[in-house]
Amino acid sequence: MTLVLIAVLGALGSLARYFTAYRFNGSLTFLPGGTLLVNVLGCLAIGVLHGMGERARWLTPDLRIGITVGLLGGFTTFSAYAFEVGRFLEEGRYGPALLYWVLSPVLGLAATVIGAAVTRWCGSH
């Protein structure tokens, strides 16, 4: 059942991301507003889900995984990154929080630039 929820909710999250980004990416002239909105909304949603914790009886473990991995994973992976950094901070693990907070965007950006450069280089040879 968990895998079905992840798949179905993941598809819905991906569609929601597409339509949100499509609608709002032109709203800010200096930033991709739709992507920013998706990232902030995803972070808000995962925070609310975490804050609800075990109090919401309707939120079964399968549904929680379906929402976090499927819906929010399809909508934005930034919410998972923010949640994980926040979890380190909640646990008082400041070193790993700082390291993960810095390494994820830096290495992600570097990998993106390297991937694009390698692709261009391979295409020119």
Strand content: under 5%
Q: Level of helix content?
A: over 70%
Give the CA-CA distance, first to last residue.
48 Å
Instruction: Assign an overall shape.
Output: globular
The counted number of beta strands is 0
The parts where pLDDT drops under 50 for at least 5 residues are none
- Rg, rounded, reads 17 Å
What's the SSE pattern?
A: HHHHH
In round numbers, the mean pLDDT is 89
The profile of the biggest β sheet is:
none
Work out the helix count.
5
Structural class: mainly alpha
What does this structure look like?
- By secondary structure, the chain is mostly helical.
- The protein has a domain at 2-76.
- The chain has five helices and no strands.
- The chain is globular and about 60 Å long.
Element layout with pairings:
Elements: H1 2-24, H2 33-52, H3 61-75, H4 78-90, H5 94-124
Helix pairs in contact: 1-2, 1-3, 2-3, 2-4, 4-5
In brief, what are we looking at here?
This protein is mainly alpha-helical and 125 residues long. The protein contains five helices and no strands.
Task: Please supply descriptive tags for the structure shown above.
125 residues; 82% helix
